[in-house]
Amino acid sequence: MLVTMTVEDLRKVVSEEFNKAMEKRGKVEGVIKQLPAILTREEFMEVMHISSTTATRIFDRPDFRVFRQGKILIESEFLLEWIRRNSDWVEEYTGYFRSVG
User: Fold this and answer.
1) Is residue 43 part of a domain?
2) What is the maximum alpha-carbon separation in the chain?
3) In this structure, is residue 57 part of a structural domain?
């Protein structure tokens, strides 16, 4: 399928998509700023929109670092970096991206 558009039409489409992306980024950054430095298991499950079973599967992953000091604790900064590195897995198994979109 061949689509023909003027340069002005193309600029308009690109501008609209850019604005949507920036709006979504702002929402995500707002959620991130509200996170405590350390998450409990329950807070982690709420942020990720996952069940206890899915949380356990994540905690058992060799690439996911948790503190097990009487209870499970997760560093928010680590979590955000892990999400960036594993975004395909997160999108498939959690509601994280749907929750901030």
Assistant:
1) yes
2) 63
3) yes
Residues 59 and 72 sit within 8 Å (Cβ to Cβ):
yes
Q: Is residue 58 part of a domain?
A: yes
9 falls within a domain: no
Predicted confidence (pLDDT) per residue in 42-99, tens digit: 999 988 889 999 999 999 999 999 999 889 999 998 998 888 888 787 777 777 766 6
What pLDDT shows up at residue 74? 95
Side-chain-side CA neighbours of 91 within 13 Å: the count stands at 6
Tokens of 9: 């039409």
Query: 43, 56, 41, 58: which is closest to 92 by C-alpha?
Result: 58
